[in-house]
Structure formats: C-alpha cells, structure tokens
Amino acid sequence: MKFCSHCGSKVQLRVPDGDNRDRYVCVDCDTIHYQNPRVVTGCLAAWEDKVLLCRRAIEPRSGYWTLPAGFMENGESVHEAAMRETLEEANARIELQGLYTLFNLPHANQVFIIYRGRLLDLDYSPGVESLEVGLFREDEIPWQDIAFSMVEETLRLYFRERDNGGFETHTRTIVRISKEPRRYRIETP
Amino acid sequence: MKFCSHCGSKVQLRVPDGDNRDRYVCVDCDTIHYQNPRVVTGCLAAWEDKVLLCRRAIEPRSGYWTLPAGFMENGESVHEAAMRETLEEANARIELQGLYTLFNLPHANQVFIIYRGRLLDLDYSPGVESLEVGLFREDEIPWQDIAFSMVEETLRLYFRERDNGGFETHTRTIVRISKEPRRYRIETP
Hints:
Two copies of one chain form a homodimer.
Chain A: E1 11-14, E2 23-26, E3 32-33, E4 38-47, E5 50-56, E6 65-66, E7 69-71, H1 78-90, E8 94-105, E9 110-119, E10 130-136, H2 149-164, E11 170-178, E12 183-187
C-alpha cells in the first residue's frame, strides 16, 4: 500500500495514537487503513463412502487436489460462501451438515474454515478453477498430491471420525517452517 | 474507495474479466482491490459460576455490556486474537477451552467468533475501551443492557449448556431487520 484509497495522497507506516501496531496512515487526510485476515471457506462433501475433491487449475498448487474452497465475500455468511465455492469449483450442489475444521494460517493472514456436507446429486463437473473433479474412497485419495496441509488434516480427521461414528469441530494452526521447500507444522489449536 | 492504493490513480467499480462481482479496479494499473469480511473474536471467560462482561466505552453501543472482543489482526490466530482482546479490554488472563459460537453478520461484513475460556485470576480491570468490567452470575446479567444480539445469544447458550453438562460449537446468522430502531433476527445456521 502506497497511496490513500480515500484521497489519493501518500501513506506512511506508523503507529496511530492510541494504537500499538504499525498501520498505513494517510499523510494528508489521516485515514487509517487497517488490514485484516481473510476467510477462506469450503466443504468436505460426501456421497456414500466417498468425498469430493477438485484438482486445481490455478496457482498456488496448480495440479494438486483440494477441497472446493475460496475467499468469503462481503454480504454473505460463511456457510453461503462454502456452498457457493463448491458450486463454482465443482458445479456441485450440497447440503451442509456443520462447521468441521477451522485452521489459522498466520503466515498467510488467513482463516480457513471447512464445513461437512452431503452431495445432493452426482451431476458435478470441473468449474473454471478446476482441472478435474472426482469422488474418492479413503483408499483412493491421492494423499501424495494433496494441495494443502489443512486439506490433508481435514480428510484424515473425517475418515477417522466417520469410522468412529461422531464428528466434532476442530481448530488447528498451520505454522510455516520454510517457504521453499514448502514445510509446515500443524499445531492444536 | 476512490483511489488505487498501489499507484494513486482513480478506481472504478466494475466486474473484472472472469469475475461476477463488482470490484474497485484501477483505471491505470488495473489492480483489483478485493474487499472481504473481517473477523471479530473474543471470549466468554468464566470464574466459578460467573462470567466476565465489559461495559463499552466506545461506539457502537457505548455504555452497554459485552464480552471482550475485537478485530483479529494480521499475523495472529483467532484464539490468540481472542486472548489478546480479553487482555486489552479487561486486563484479564484466560485459558481458552474451545471454539464456542460463530455468528455471520452479512450486513456488517463480519464474522464474530467467541471462545469459551476460564479466568486465571481475579486481577481484572477496565481497559481503555471499557468503562467497567465485572463478573456476573446468570441471575445478575444485565439482560436489558447487552450491547449485541450475538453476545446475548452466546450467554443464553452458555448457561443452558453449562446446566446440562456439555458444550457444543454453534453457528448462527444475525439478519438485520431495521437499522433504526435496531432490530435483528437470529437464524440457524
């Protein structure tokens, strides 16, 4: 951020009065431009003993498998965003069954929220951000080609809890150990 | 938003190629300025049979009672933000016990997340954004002077579940019926 989005003057990074963090503040109109984490949300959608995965057509992690998910938009609820993203990325209609996992990604300034859901029909297909979409049993999951550690963790929790007969809501934090090569540690919470 | 924060040129509201929503797009450098919901988080902190409430010193709802909560910052996790806000607004140290309620506020572009927690000591006091801080038994709660419907709903869920011996994670949507007078409807989810 270099310029004030209200008046077009330059901004400087400083701690405003009464605050304790650096913010971009306009040198002219004094507007404080707060920057906050964004919510990414999606769905683990099941059909019988299978779950719906999408192969990513876009970076990051193009070519790898993920759950349908994306940025929550202004004016919608988290569960509406999860259903919309499932429709956009997999052309799939779902019924949501509950908040399932919440991941903190402090290095990316994101909160990643996954719901459990149920596919309403088999009429799914790749959206523009997916190369392919498919249903996978636990032993068919491409574990080596999962795009993100929070997707792998959500899938592992799901199959374990499904076999044990009850789902809880889980929170985790993804700590980035190194950017290149990609290495992360999963902490609870 | 009137000016591009990258180059200082004017922005216009239009649907970018491949998108389906109006965004602020720079007329000069074509930067798309996405705007997304923000996360507000805090804690329902208990001590024996009492819960910690703060009386707000700032708008909106100055003078009314609330749970300590505030905007999540970049670089932190939701639970870190909840603990930080409890420290800032009530000078209170807590141990978190789990994700408790998640409220969608689509009219405000916010997601409001409350954790359950336990006060570690009685050495609390008002922070700069609070007029007073106190511990309340269920029959002492100032129900007529609670600042926000999601705070009242969280408190009612808490006392009911505490008496029944088990806590679950709940999601709700606050639908604004009218701005003046303030009228809201709570929907599940």
